Amino acid sequence: DGLNWQRPNLGQYEFQGSKDNNLLEYDFSSFGDYLALGPSAFFLPPEHTDKGRFGAVLPAVDLRLRRNPDSHGMNQFLAFSDDGQTWKLRQEHNPFFRGRNDTHQSLVWSPDRKVFMYYRRATINAKEIRRIAYTESADLINWTQPRVVINADELDALYLYGMTVTRYQNMYLGLL
C-alpha cells in the first residue's frame, strides 16, 4: 500500500556480529579499498536487460586516497541486479565517474530519446556552492560532458544538495 513497509532480512553482510539485517554487500575487491555510500537504484529498459532488471549508481570513497587531505577519493560505480537484492559491480568502465558526488543523484531512462539521463553534483569549479549538473549516455559507457543545469542565485539556499528526477507522463520532474 506504500504506507506500511517491512524490511527484508537479506543475510548478506555481517554487522555487529550478525547477518540478521537488510544491509547490502558490494564486492569492490577488484577495484581497491572502497567504502560504499547510499546507492540510487533505477529500472533498466528492455534494451538493456542483458545487464539485469535493475541498475544502481553507487557512490564510493577510495579509502587509499581519502588519507590524502587534498583528495576526497570519491567515485561513482554502476552495479546491476536481477532481483534487486544481489548486486554485481560492472567490471569494465567502472568507476564511470570520478569526482565528488555525495548528494542524491538520479539516473533516468528516456524512452523517447533512448538515453540515460544522469543528474548529479557538479564538481568542476564548484568552490563551496553545490549545483546540479546533467550528462547523458545511450550505453552507460560513453557520457557527454556534464553541464550545470541548476545554479543557486542570491535568493536560493547556499547549497542545492541534490535533485531526484522521475518521469511523469511526457515530462520529467526534478525535486531539489
Care to describe what's here?
The chain is mostly beta strands. 2% of the residues lie in helices and 34% in strands. It has one helix and twelve strands; from the N terminus they run E-E-E-H-E-E-E-E-E-E-E-E-E. It has one helix spanning 63-66, and strands at 34-36, 40-43, 54-62, 74-81, 88-89, 97-98, 106-110, 115-121, 132-137, 147-150, 164-168, 171-175. The strands form three sheets. Strands 1, 2, 3, 4, 5 and 6 form a six-stranded antiparallel β-sheet that branches. Strand 7 and strand 8 (115-121) form a beta hairpin. It is globular and about 50 Å long.
Throw out a few tags for this protein:
four-stranded antiparallel beta sheet, mainly beta, 1 helix, six-stranded antiparallel beta sheet, 34% strand, 176 residues
